[in-house]
Specification:
five-stranded antiparallel sheet; Jelly Rolls; elongated
Length: 318
């Protein structure tokens, strides 16, 4: 009589389960923007220009950004979803703000600002993001949505362009007045960022626009909601099994990051055998798409072709 030894099969099964669980140990990151969806109010805003009723937020210039909330009466033109400039539900919660990012040749600008919950750590990779929606009555759509930083609270005695210590800019032209559109930036921190400023830091001349309707006296206007700032901490799986079973077929894939993120793959002798875009992920092949043999490989996640912010190893098992 022969007895089948199942210990190897059992150990291999446990090994796979262990690696699978490790692969999905993702750490949620803290949003460093307090009251990022403008929900915490000192009082219901019964006029549109009461941005400071959203606790922690203020205008860093003489211009007057607006605040909208479901608690406000329609007669004040700053209710949600219907208000004086359009019809839109909040991206999250019951309210949002509104700004003028383009002044139709006057460089008039509206900005919003707040203090972060803590100063950014130096030389870390962060994502800064917010959502915008073109107000229904806006005659113009614009671009150059920006995210600025300063070490201290600032106030500029102007209703025109202002500057910040460091500025991130998106040239996306947002035309959508139905859906909320995400504007996001990935960046390496300097370590002195305490305040954020949101708005258009480019002149009218350098702002790409699309004229939708010629309406006298009407400004280019956007609603803005759900501001976030989070440190990136990728905890990727350490097991890749590209065998066609639909489980762990691709490693390092993240469709939510920009093309600035790449992953270098090295063999055990330290030779670089592939570099992949994180949006695509790694399928266990080399530069020439040749299938690699089972074994332990090492990876290096890099940002903008220079900043290595995570290293580790991964098991390739076919």
């Amino acid at each position: 009589m022969f007895f089948k030894n199942n210990s190897y099969q059992l150990n291999k099964f446990v090994f796979y389960i262990f690696l699978f669980l490790i692969g999905f140990n993702l750490k949620a990151q803290e949003n460093l923007v307090p009251n990022g969806s403008f929900e915490i109010l000192s009082d219901c805003p019964f006029d549109a220009i009461s941005l400071n009723k959203a606790i922690g937020w203020f205008s860093p210039s003489n211009s007057t950004p607006d605040i909208y909330n479901i608690c406000s009466d329609l007669s004040f033109n700053n209710s949600v979803p219907l208000n004086g400039l359009g019809y839109q539900y909040a991206k999250e919660g019951n309210g949002y703000v509104g700004i003028v990012p383009y002044g139709q040749g006057t460089d008039y600008r509206e900005y919003i600002s707040c203090k972060l919950s803590k100063q950014l750590a130096a030389n870390k990779i962060y994502e800064a993001a917010y959502y915008v929606n073109l107000a229904t009555s806006s005659p113009i759509a614009s671009s150059q949505f920006g995210f600025g930083f300063s070490g201290d609270s600032v106030h500029f005695n102007t209703n025109s362009l202002i500057q910040a210590n460091s500025i991130l800019v998106s040239d996306t032209l947002v035309l959508d007045s139905t859906n909320w559109i995400k504007i996001s930036f990935f960046f390496e921190s300097q370590g002195n960022e305490n305040y954020i400023i949101i708005g258009n830091f480019s002149s009218d001349l350098n702002t790409k626009i699309d004229t939708l309707n010629i309406i006298s006296g009407k400004d280019c206007y956007y609603y803005l909601d759900l501001v976030t700032l989070t440190e990136l901490d990728f905890n990727y799986e350490n097991c890749l099994t590209p065998n066609g079973d639909g489980v762990n077929e691709i490693a390092f894939k993240n469709v939510n990051v920009s093309n600035d993120f790449k992953v270098n793959i090295f063999n055990r002798w330290g030779e670089k055998i592939n570099t992949i875009n994180m949006k695509d992920g790694w399928d266990g092949t080399d530069f020439n798409k040749n299938l690699l043999s089972d074994g332990v490989y090492f990876y290096q996640i890099i940002f903008k072709d220079k900043k290595s912010f995570k290293n580790g190893f991964i098991h390739l098992i076919r």
